[in-house]
Amino acid sequence: MARQLPDRYLTPIDLADLLGVPIETVYQWRRKRTGPRGFRVGRHLRFDPEDVRRWVESLMEEAA
Q1: What is d(CA 48, CA 64) in angstroms, rounded to the nearest whole number?
Q2: Which residues does 42 contact at the CB level (< 8 Å), separation at least 6?
Q3: Confidence at 4, pLDDT banded by 50, 70, 90
Q4: Which residues contact residue 1 at a Cβ distance below 8 angstroms, ignoring those fewer than 6 apart?
Q5: pTM of the model
Q6: CA-to-CA distance for 55 and 38, rounded, in angstroms?
Q7: Of 13, 30, 43, 60, which alpha carbon lies 20 to 30 A from 19's?
Q8: Residues 38 and 45 sit within 8 Å (Cβ to Cβ)
Q9: CB-count exposure of residue 44 (10 Å: 0-12, 13-18, 19+)
C-alpha cells in the first residue's frame, strides 16, 4: 500500500477514502465478511490499520 496508514483506528469513511471506494462498498464488505476485520466501539465501527494492511496484502497475493 503506497499511502501511509494513520496511527489511529480508521472509521468506515477513512477506509473508503484510503482505498478509493464508495462508503457503501465498505459496508457491503462487512455484511459479506469479505473486507478487513472491523470492530465496534459502542455504536461506532472501527478498523485497525494493521488489519487493513494485511487484508490488502492478501488481496495482492491472490492477484499475483
Answers
A1: 25
A2: none
A3: confident
A4: 53, 56, 57
A5: 0.86
A6: 11
A7: 43
A8: yes
A9: exposed
Q: For 21-64, where are the alpha helices, taking DSSP H only?
A: 23-32, 49-63
Q: Are strands 38-41 and 44-47 parallel, antiparallel or unpaired?
A: antiparallel
Mean per-residue pLDDT, 22-41: 97
Tracing cell 469479505 back to the chain, one arrives at 34
Cell numbers standing for residue 61 = 497475493
What is d(CA 52, CA 29) in angstroms, rounded to the nearest whole number? 12
Q: What are phi and psi of 26, to 5 degrees?
A: -60, -45
Count, residues in the chain: 64
